[in-house]
Design brief:
Order of helices and strands: EHHHHEHEEHEEH
Shape: globular
Bound molecules: magnesium ion
CATH architecture of the largest domain: 3-Layer(aba) Sandwich
Number of helices: 7
Strand content: 15-25%
Oligomer: single chain
Largest sheet: 6 strands, parallel
CATH topology of the largest domain: Rossmann fold
Structural class: alpha/beta
Helix content: 25-40%
């Protein structure tokens, strides 16, 4: 079995658009005001946000299918800004498959510092995370809503694609 790490925001649930919309209303720039955005993330009601977010390309069902394939040890590796956020994500993931591991990563810490990376797959929507992962000996897979042209990584639009690729 291959070790498979899957990001949460932007891969399982489309949680970011509502946060960025709120940031815009508050006149915060997502790219430059990272400290303020971090504060915003930590203040958000994650239970509510998760309830309001849609799953991306049937990701919840795809997680079950990945598990049933028997090909992967699946871990959700997700950045969090607060313990409340971690708790809400753990509650959401509870019961999807019985063999899921969840690792909340403190914001500002590289995902590569939390686990073994060599030979492991990371699915993420953020290229920066994938770059670090590959530099640490892992395989990066970029999740996008639609196929991306000139993607430097293996590009998927559904988690189910992993079953045929690996
Ligand atoms: Mg993400």
């Amino acid at each position: 079995m291959k070790n498979l790490y899957i990001d949460f925001d932007g891969v399982i649930l489309d949680t970011l658009p509502p946060v960025y919309k709120l940031a815009k209303q508050l006149n915060l720039d997502v790219k430059t005001q990272t400290k303020e955005i971090g504060m915003l993330f930590s203040k958000i009601d994650w239970e509510e946000l998760i309830e309001d977010s849609v799953d991306l390309n049937d990701s919840v069902n795809a997680l079950s299918k990945l598990s049933e394939s028997g090909k992967f040890n699946i871990t959700i590796l997700t950045h969090v800004n607060s313990l409340k956020e971690a708790k809400a994500k753990i509650n959401f993931l509870d019961g999807i498959t019985s063999d899921l591991t969840i690792i909340p990563v403190p914001s500002g810490v590289s995902k590569t510092k939390m686990t073994q990376t060599v030979g492991a797959i990371l699915v993420d929507d953020f290229s920066g995370n994938l770059k670090e992962w590959e530099e640490s000996g892992g395989t990066g897979v970029k999740f996008t809503k639609e196929k991306e042209n000139d993607c430097k990584f293996i590009n998927i639009t559904s988690l189910e694609d992993l079953i045929s690729i690996f």
